[in-house]
Amino acid sequence: MSVLTRSMDSDTEVENIFTKVNDEDDDEKMKQRRPPSSYGSMKSDSDDMEDIKVEQTSETVAAVLPDPPVNTGTGIQMVRSMSPETLYTIGTEQTKPPGAMVLETGSLDLDDLEEEDEEEEDEILEACSPEPPEPLELEDSMSDESSQPGKMHPEQDLAHVFKNMQKSLAGLTTTELLDFQIKFSDWQNKVTMRVDGDVLDFVDMLIERFGQERALMSTIETLKIIGKMEEAQELYEQCHRALSRFQMNTCLIAKYRVINEGVPRAGKQSLLNNIYVEPELSRCGYGGIDPCHEFLRHPPNTVNVPSPDTFISLNDLFRLKKQDGTPVRTVVTTGLAGVGKSVCASKYGLDWAECVANRDQQFVLSLSFRSFLLMRDRKKKDSPTGVVSFLDVLKYRMSTMKCTEYLDKESDNFLLIMDCFDCYDGPLDWENAPVVDCVKTKAHVDHLVVNIIRGTLLPGARLWILGRRAAVSQIPSKYIDEFTELQGFSDPMKDEYMTKRFNEAGLAAKIMRHYKLLPTLQILGRNPFFLWMMAITFKRCFGYLEYGQEPPRLTPFYIHMMIVQTNRRLQYYYGKPENQLKWSDQENFLILLLGKLAFKMLQKNTSVFYEGDVKDVQLELREAVVNSGMVTEIQTTVSDKRRAFSFLHYSFQEFLAALYVFMKFHMESKNILDSSFLSMPKSLTLKYLTKSAAGLVQIALAQALHSPLGRYDLFLRFLCGLLNPECHYNLLSDHFYGHSFPKVGGLDEVQKLLEHAIETAPENRVGNLKECLREMIQSDE
Question: Which candidate, 96, 359, 542, 744, has a CA 20 to 30 Å from the CA of 283?
Fold first, then answer.
């Protein structure tokens, strides 16, 4: 708005906004008129301050504005909302020149103008304001490379799009512009537009009402409709980089706007922005294991935890610098299964597409390693050589991509997000793979992957690799600029997620109070997937009137976690569809062998195992430490060259050990705790037969009570929980055995055994024994 306008007194300003003319012969009418454009004489705030000073010091300079037009009826001049486009042009006010033509395109007929067209020849329509100046920095922070949301490439920002649209339309004659207006209004009938001869004002209106992408594309198409092919092609070429970004924005928003949780159901999807809580992301990676435990101060082996000063915001990943001060090129992010790696990648892409952050990155491509794996398998069937170019992979996954011409340019700043590195099981020869340095060069898919990570292919790309630690640890460190690890939710983040997850505040509060009754559930809630699982389970349970009177049981959640991770293994690594997730003997053996390994580690009082331990139980290494989703690799000392592993949490190791003991008892009638009884004090005697349920629990109970607190206490609770028919009959059946398999008998004797132990056990053990009894007899879920 100009200086003169701002200096008006309040009465005059109100009079200009609302002008009322009393006319008894005419009906009162309300006519909406858009204020004149101000783009042409746009100024920054500093320029406005200079104008104010000039006005104050020089009284001889006076600005004269044309008299305002006389309204014939009641009229309202509406002030537009402060959209980004309006803010961009709000510096001054453009005034319509006297005698300018005002046409209502909604009711315009070219026949009305035939007489005027015959009298005078068409003249080139000139803008009534000067060329728009160079784009101004609205915020000082935008010029800082390390700040958010970042500064766009000059060919992708608003000023570039605006000026090229104005240039294309300014070359039209009066009739051509009118024809353009009519055709544009015919297929973009959202609003009725007015033309006053000001091209800049018209372009400003288009961008504000339709947005940059729709306004630009509609302008190009309308130019083609009226036969201005050269102008349309020139506008397309001048704004090609911006159009490519718009197309990528649309693609990413459609892909990431909705998050499918669990089994997708129509009408049950959630918007990612509504429920997303950013987990803690650390620049130090130790394995991501939470050392907290209900009974132990820490697991048997010390667990390193990153300090809070190593945490970094997700959107600032590619603002990090290497030691030489240059920006990082390759960032690796890892974490436990279910910690939210893919969700974080989705949120990053969505924020970029919605211009919330990282606007300085020209393009963001999302191309998972699963895409390369599918392409490799497809090419194996089509041809014996199996060669393919990077563009072939890109078009296979994103067929409408327009930014391919910029991929080979080292000067272009774009990001390639490559999720699910653990899904790619092909051999990657980091030293001997042939060099591929062109996106059009055909090569084996394994060689493409190696060259992308090396940096010889896509030299201008920033690369973000996400995957499970045991998989990404095989990438040579010389190709990685930054190694980060997702740690999960802190306690306040857990509450924030629950609050966002449910629209009903009362339900969220009840669920939070309920799961916090069990310390182990509260600890496991650090894993976002486990927290989501608790949220949907308790939401369903609280639908029953009498639910919540007793604390929840622990064992069902661990069973669900095991089942979901195994089903994901079938989907992600073996390509099984949702309706074909029936377990085979391979899945059963995998879980039982992991349980055997967990039991051996429990007996040794250790939470860390190595490759040799995996081979001792006849497990294939990759299946155990990557595909199972129940194990992670942990950092070892520099002197120890062995690869070390651990279960997701020490309590998960205790659960798998109890599951192994139970399955041996239930399916093979073997009590593998017999040998443990031999090492106990000779004063102990067995009251029950060892092959009965009571005999099994009696030995486990003796182990727990004659060991330090926490050594076998949680193991005993899980074993009792598995004896509950709702666990071993309802949850485990159809996975390990059929429904025709009999239930465990003799639970009355087990109940008497536990009740007697509660009466006689030391005070510090009574609480856990009560929980063991409740796990076995409670039936509410």
Answer: 359
pLDDT, tens only, 628-676: 999 999 988 777 788 999 999 999 999 999 999 999 999 999 999 977 6
Number of other residues whose CB lies within 10 A of the CB of residue 117: 13
Question: Helix 199-225 vs helix 174-187: angle between axes, to the nearest 10 degrees?
Answer: 70
Cα 508 to Cα 690: distance, rounded to the nearest angstrom: 45
Neighbours of 37 (CB within 10 A): 28
First to last CA, the chain: 65
The C-alpha angle with vertex 415 and arms to 252 and 368, in degrees rounded to 5, equals 65
Spatial CB neighbours of 220, under 8 Å, sequence gap ≥ 6: 232, 235, 236
Nearest-5° Cα angle at 19, 18 to 21? 140
Measured CA to CA in angstroms, residue 47 lies from 52, 137, 342, 592 at distances of: 9, 13, 47, 75
SS3 629: coil
Rounded to 5 degrees, what angle do the CA atoms 212, 353, 356 make?
A: 95
Q: Residue 128 above 70 pLDDT?
A: no
Q: Compute the distance between CA of residue 301 and CA of residue 607 in angstroms, rounded to an integer.
A: 6
Nearest Cα residue to 83 out of 397, 423, 355: 355
On whether the CB atoms of residues 423 and 370 are closer than 8 A, the answer is yes
Can you give the pLDDT at residue 198?
Answer: 76
Candidates 422, 393, 260; CA nearest to 334 is: 422
pLDDT tens-digit series, residues 332-367: 999 999 999 999 999 999 999 999 999 889 889 999
Q: Which two tokens stand for residue 704?
A: 């727990």
- The amino acid occupying position 403 is C
Helix (H) or strand (E) segment spanning residue 75: strand 75-77
Q: pLDDT (tens digit, 9 = 90+) per residue, 471-501?
A: 999 999 999 999 999 999 999 999 999 999 9
Average pLDDT of the residues in 101-120: 43
pLDDT, one tens digit per residue, over 394-440 is 888 877 776 677 776 666 688 999 999 999 988 899 999 999 988 88
Largest separation between any pair of C-alpha atoms in the chain: 122
Write the DSSP symbol of residue 678.
T
